[in-house]
Amino acid sequence: MAGKAKKQLRVGVAGLGVASSQVLPAFRPGAPYLLAGGADTSAEARKGFTDRYGRPAYASVRELCARDDVDAVWISTPNTLHMEHTITAARAGKHVICEKPMAVTLQQCDRMIRACEDAGVHYLQGHSKIYQAPMKAIRKVIKSGRLGRVVQIHAANFNDWLQRPRLAPELDTTKGGGIVYRQGPHIIDIVRFIGGGMVDNVRGVSGRADRHFDTEGHFSALLEFDNGATATVTFNGYGYFDVTELTWGIGESGRVQTGARSFPRADKPRLTGPANPARKRAVAQDRGDHGAGAAAKDERHQPFFGLSVVFCEKGVIRQAPDGIYVYTQKGREEISLNEGHGRSQELQELVDAIARKRPAFPDGHWGKATLEVCLAIMQSGRDGKVRRLKHQVPAP
Ligand SMILES: NC(=O)c1ccc[n+]([C@@H]2O[C@H](COP(=O)([O-])OP(=O)(O)OC[C@H]3O[C@@H](n4cnc5c(N)ncnc54)[C@H](O)[C@@H]3O)[C@@H](O)[C@H]2O)c1
């Protein structure tokens, strides 16, 4: 009907902790999606959500999914619950965006994929750095063919992942904790996206170098793609050095990291064990305030997830503060980017995929393939063997 407003996608957020505090600022007036409600087992988290966003919060994901006024669910509950909550949402006919890692095992991924396919709903592997404009721009230059094929990718990140307040399960590898499960998907998504997606084999080493934490705090890996490209991936999360020193000070949010986020700090004692839920919730509150208060676009650069440098046959590509640099025989060219930040891209992708009746990207098969690489890094570190991969899918 002429003049009729388009129906917005009504999204519920399951799990109202730290991850949700990065998702919720994406719900802005005028967007083609809206915040329908939330779900959390914690009464305190539910109250905080309803007070702040004025939307109802339910005590279980099942209740949220039973609502007729919810079309899709963003799952940001702990890793061990991603499968259960994806299946619950799919069976209730809701589209799913699920946080990384997709799940803890490949078998769980299969069940999630099947549940969504059986229900005819979309599954989007959410919160991926490949939505960010610099990654899309790097891929575009590669696809143009002007630099020839990709030869090597170097991706590194150094941060304080293990020095942030974490609940006990987040520090338990058997529950999907530790840095390989939690941060591996980001850096692996980046190199798979740039390298074409199809990793042939992996040799990795992960380790536990902080005696206070019995989970991975670092890893290194060499990935070989079926097209001959290689990727070296390094992550260190012990908090003695921050990669933003190498990226013009710019971090994951696109903001220059100053003051509180720079470390190590003499006045801040190192953490030596898990946090209690109240302390973890304070992080969500803090991040929520930061996200809401500092949204002005002109204060922000493009987001950096560490340092990624891509060597091609005829040139090199890396991120610049506000775009990407392309280095060729002719010199350095800058491609400026002015796209949005945050989780709006994922939501936009889901809206678009539903409207055009096409699969969303990255889908469950992509999420499973990225998890396969993360698991291979840990397995290869245990037995010293190169792992050949079986579940890889190409980048579109
Ligand atoms: N911490 C981060 O910076 C971050 C960022 C992005 C994504 N993630 C991902 O998001 C997920 C959650 O991580 P987090 O750091 O936000 O954890 P969190 O502990 O801060 O939040 C999880 C929330 O889920 C709730 N919850 C637990 N069991 C539930 C259940 N059965 N039903 C409903 N709610 C339940 C908890 O009460 C809590 O509020 C993980 O998959 C993680 O990998 C985390």
Give a summary of the structure in a few sentences:
The protein has 396 residues and is α/β, with parallel strands linked by helices.
Commentary on this structure:
This protein has helices spanning 18-23, 43-53, 61-65, 82-91, 106-119, 133-144, 179-182, 184-195, 277-293, 344-356, 364-383; strands spanning 9-14, 33-39, 57-58, 72-75, 95-98, 123-125, 150-158, 199-207, 218-225, 230-236, 307-312, 315-320, 323-328, 331-336, 387-388. It folds into 2 domains: 9-128, NAD(P)-binding Rossmann-like Domain (Rossmann fold, 3-Layer(aba) Sandwich); 129-342 and 373-388, Dihydrodipicolinate Reductase, domain 2 (2-Layer Sandwich). Strand 5, helix 5 (106-119) and strand 6 form a beta-alpha-beta unit. Mean pLDDT is 93; it is low at 291-297. The longest helix has 20 residues, at 364-383. With 396 residues, it is α/β, with parallel strands linked by helices. The protein is globular, with a radius of gyration of 20 Å. The chain has 11 helices and 15 strands. The strands form 2 sheets. The chain has a 9-stranded mixed sheet with strand order 14-13-12-11-7-10-9-8-15. A 6-stranded parallel sheet has the order 3-2-1-4-5-6.
